[in-house]
Amino acid sequence: MGFACLMGFAKRRESDGHRGSSFELCLYTGRQENFRVNPSRRDLAVILPALAAAAQAQESKLLPSKAFPYESLPVKVNGENKSRAVLNGETHSGYAIELHMTELGPGQAPHPPHRHVHEELMMLQRGTLEATIKGESMRLPAGSVVYMASNDEHGWRNPGPEPAQYFVIAFGKDS
Ligand SMILES: [Zn+2]
Prior knowledge:
- By secondary structure, the chain is mostly beta strands.
- The protein folds into two domains: 3-60, no CATH class; 70-171, Sandwich (Jelly Rolls), CATH 2.60.120.10.
- Helices cover 11% and strands 45% of the residues.
- It has one helix at residues 41-60; strands at residues 3-11, 20-28, 35-37, 75-78, 81-90, 96-104, 119-126, 129-133, 136-140, 145-148, 154-157, 164-171.
- The strands form three sheets. It has a six-stranded antiparallel beta sheet with strand order 4-5-6-12-7-10, with no helix packed on it. A three-stranded mixed beta sheet has the order 2-1-3, with helices on one face.
- Strand 4 and strand 5 form a beta hairpin.
- The protein is elongated, with a radius of gyration of 24 Å.
- It starts with a strand and ends with a strand.
- The site of zinc ion has 5 residues, from loops.
């Protein structure tokens, strides 16, 4: 699953005449379907570098083992809110995963209730949040966790008086 294959015929030397060996070069694309092409030599000269670049781009999305010290995370400040991007990439199976931390000031919300195709996990590290899931609101103390299934409407705000800090892990892609 998920391989792009090129079929070709390589001559070892000119003196070999038409003798040579056929080859098939397959690269993992991360897509669902396999595809196979049988290009001319000239096509190959164009396709091979493109495939190599695509393979490299694909590889770079693979998340390596890594520690993310809190102080080293880039901080984006938006009024009373702060956001820290931690990681954004793929697991070995090509599954998308993204993690960020958000700090909300008292009375703040990251956005109005929304919905999306990808699933989400919110883990409240400190402070209090008032979460609304499919129209139902609840107050959550530090240490609470919320899992949002695909396309379920959800949102939260910090009722105060302390800042609230939480992690959000997004699973999968929206398309
Ligand atoms: Zn969301």
